[in-house]
């Protein structure tokens, strides 16, 4: 078994360093610590003399020098975790392992994400186990995690069975005294007490075993959590009562009747098991979005191999395989259509409900639904490389992340349980010394009420459950949010910076205007131009051909074709010379009428590219081409402005073109002529003015600006580099997703604040109420147990309301 290095061990770790370009870099890194640097491999072997600070100091030291550190991330599924104190204990146990940079534990998902270098997973699981918790490694690339799902179902079944048995026995305990009186008191008080003892014992030690086990684990590790509070509270009531059954005269004073509290200990365990059962059910509902997303991937694929169809598990599909898809089937992996055409519902990926038409060479995505038609496609991405798998992985990472607002709750949770024990002891001592009520028993009931009513669970669940539901709902709407810190920042945005090409516009030129002199119709002009451009590979030529295809205009191959770089094209058709290009091309070769010249000037002033069509020596028409706005761009900008956000257009285009696009989109401010490498600097300038800035882009040249902005938003139809650099990805490419992300962020943060307020207010108000004995007239510890169980359920239920958020 792997040994966990002690904190004072000297440990050698190999740290992969990025960004080293010369021997001088290696010399600088050697100064971080006792490091030997291999410049050829880019690795630095560092000696760490202590685990906790060593790894963190090495990473911080290397990053301060301007270099990167390639770290690994191991994900663990944690068992037996119940409250915020458990989270703190597990994080501390993992972080002190030498080589661990940091660890984040999420109570809602029961996951731990550990960032490290050179640490075997067996040591990480051992560290969690030694802290008193079960841990297994979770492979993030495995989408359908059947083992984890089976464990969750097993836990739910176990808690339900224990609750049912506890409820039946508790009901018998509560009614035994009444039944004895109704039957004419056939049993003496001593016999009734003994029967209560027999009924309460299995409730205490079998139904409540999970709490006793957690308490014992805490004792061994010198820590305390919610299990400690429940175990001590119920054992105190049960132990006092059991002592009274065994030696009544030693517990009750002379002439005083013996009071037993088996009903109290049993009902506390029953109510807390009820709360735990409801919590598990609610937690399952909170993860429904990611589960539903995971379940959409088909389990098999119809693969064509050697001209034969065969059903194979989707895990066995390889890149390059030909796959047949029939109507009603889901696409198993990503690929390109080879034969056939169809209409595909991509709402699971993009959030858009309208089906998308697919034909030869169209891209299809795994988990999407084939509506009509049959086709075959060639697999290009399989397994963890598919867009669907990446979305699942991104959502899971986001759901396991932590928002900065959680730090307050974490600090409180670290001291919460010891403080509650102190309050309970003080309560017991003061009531016993005061001698009120029945002396010892009254003091005991009040102390037990304090222990049971305290609820660190609500504190631990307040933030992660809201993030869990919020990021899941975002994924359903086609908005992928990378983590809790992004959710916390997005609702504070006051400035949205939009890139132009591919973000605000379609990124492809399209024909916008057809102007003729009257000698031929617009259709005739377009048909003539498309025929001339048949042999052209220029984007403007493609735009003209696409326009003719959309209008179903027949085109013919020209007899001769010549591309004139920087000017246009020349062709011959039916014995006539045709010119298609800019002013420079037709300037000295054709006559341009004044009225047509004026119309061309107006199109150019609007930021459009004007192509002149000349037949022989006479210009017969104009074609206006522009990178047009996306269909929803104007509405998206209006939605952002309605949220009191400042919208800015940032582009490398010239001022005239940028101004024309901004006018059409109703964007008040334009920053034009910005080189790609200058975009990040412009974002930084806005931040220096105390603005919280989001950058929205789609290209490789936008990646530095996306990383610099407070929130980087990538359009899902853009490049992988842009999406990697971004904090939020709009899978559909629709800009309306920006407003959706901001409003979802605001809704999630409001829910987190509500949860934290309720969790703090509950404990601050009700612990003193229990300590003052004000719960006793209502049922004392039993009421406390019910309130404690409901507090966690109420926090989760409040978070679940985010699922009703609409775009």
Task: Walk me through what this model shows.
This protein has 807 residues and is of the alpha+beta class. The chain is built from 29 helices and 30 strands. The strands form six sheets. A seven-stranded mixed beta sheet has the order 18-30-29-28-19-26-27, sandwiched between helices. The protein has a six-stranded antiparallel beta sheet with strand order 10-9-11-17-12-15, with no helix packed on it. It has a six-stranded antiparallel beta sheet with strand order 20-25-24-23-22-21, with helices on both faces. Strand 2 (35-38) and strand 3 (43-48) form a beta hairpin. It is elongated.
Low-confidence stretches: 1-9, 48-53
Q: How many β-strand runs?
A: 30
The structure class reads alpha+beta
Q: Kindly, what is the distance between the CA atoms of the first and last residues, rounded to a whole number of angstroms? A: 52 Å
Strand order of the largest sheet: 18-30-29-28-19-26-27
User: Mean of the pLDDT scores?
Assistant: 79
Strand content: 15-25%
Largest beta-sheet characterization: 7 strands, mixed
- Per the principal axes of the C-alpha atoms, what is the gross shape? elongated
**Helical proportion?**
40-55%
* Rg calculated over all Cα atoms: 35 Å
Total count of helical runs of at least 4 residues: 29
Short recap of the structure:
The protein is α+β, with helices and mostly antiparallel strands and 807 residues long.
Set down the secondary structure blueprint.
Blueprint: E1 11-18, H1 23-30, E2 35-38, E3 43-48, H2 51-64, E4 68-69, E5 72-79, H3 84-95, E6 100-106, E7 111-116, H4 121-130, E8 134-138, H5 146-182, H6 189-207, H7 209-220, H8 226-246, H9 248-251, H10 262-286, H11 288-295, E9 300-305, E10 308-313, E11 322-325, E12 334-340, E13 342-345, H12 347-350, E14 356-358, E15 363-364, E16 369-372, E17 375-381, H13 387-399, H14 406-434, H15 440-453, H16 456-476, E18 479-481, H17 484-490, E19 495-499, H18 500-504, E20 505-516, H19 522-532, H20 539-550, E21 560-564, E22 568-573, E23 576-581, H21 583-587, H22 594-605, E24 609-615, E25 618-629, H23 633-642, E26 646-650, H24 655-665, E27 669-671, H25 679-688, E28 693-697, H26 703-708, E29 711-715, H27 720-725, E30 728-730, H28 736-771, H29 781-800
Parallel strand pairs: 19-26, 19-28, 26-27, 28-29, 29-30
Antiparallel strand pairs: 1-3, 1-4, 2-3, 5-7, 5-8, 6-7, 9-10, 9-11, 11-17, 12-15, 12-17, 13-14, 13-16, 18-30, 20-25, 21-22, 22-23, 23-24, 24-25
Helix pairs in contact: 3-14, 5-6, 5-10, 6-8, 6-10, 7-8, 8-10, 8-15, 10-29, 11-16, 13-16, 14-15, 14-16, 15-28, 15-29, 16-28, 16-29, 17-28, 19-20, 23-28, 28-29
